Amino acid sequence: MSFISAHPIAAIALLLVAAAAVVVGRFVLKIHRKDPTVWAGEMRRFDKFDRRDGVPSDVIVFTGSSSIRYWSTLATDMSPLPVLNRGFGGSQIDDVTYYAERAILRYKPKAIVFYAGENDMAGVLWSSKKTPEQVRDAFRAFCKKIFASAPDTPIYFISIKPPKRRIAEWPQMRAANRLIRDYCASDQRLHYIDIVPPMSDPQGNPRGDLYSWDGIHMNAQGYAIWTSAVKPALVKAATLPRFNEVAQAAEL
User: Fold this and answer.
1) What is the CB-side half-sphere exposure of residue 100 using CA atoms within 13 A?
2) 86, 61 in Cβ contact below 8 A?
3) SS3 string of 116-154?
4) Please, what are the averages of pLDDT over each run of 10 residues along the chain (252 residues)?
5) Is the pTM of this model over 0.85?
6) Which domains does the chain have, with CATH numbers?
7) Considering all CA atoms of the chain, what is the largest pairwise distance in Å, rounded to the nearest integer?
8) Taken in order 186, 59, 51, 92, is the CA torsion positive or negative?
9) Distance, CA of 103 to CA of 85 (rounded, Å)
């Protein structure tokens, strides 16, 4: 009697484990190779939302890595500004650039709020780590891609946050922040939102109370700080006059 005949449930379980291992292995390999198609499933998730809700336009698109994706209260936090969350996975800047048409430009955004670069420098799943200069150049390439199709669209870069768990990379991340801040200062369409001071303690270390159990992703307190920094920047922006009127009217 074969093992499958004698132990059908155990055999099925082993097959499922083997299949899962193959899927995970392919995912890790693509991450290691920096293959942006690893996020194709996330694009299909966006397509599903668009089929269900319709393709929105005239919105502020928030995009980037998991710190954006997990911002579950984004619409409420930014209200009455019309926003759309298109953050995905553990993406790096080049991944967002690769999918710019599908995840950003198709919505004809009035503005883009961008958070990525942390994974680039930390090295996700044994992928190589980028230098501060490489991160700056990757963001520059992202902006070039956006401006080629939407030259007047403002882009807001949320500074790389001080990581509780990735503290060893923080000096390099700070250097990348400075380079991107200087790059943003060279173009009036670019805006740098510095969330480092409110996320740091008096000694300049990451505030542990702002992070979830993994020390990487934020909790509600962390997102409250982001809201307090990002929303005023959007409301006050001269590039968003109609949105300003809506937000200011709602405050009256």
Assistant:
1) 19
2) yes
3) CCHHHHHCHHHCCCCCHHHHHHHHHHHHHHHHHHCCCCC
4) 57 43 42 71 94 92 97 97 94 96 96 96 80 98 98 98 86 96 98 97 91 92 98 79 54 46
5) no
6) 57-251 (3.40.50.1110)
7) 79
8) positive
9) 9
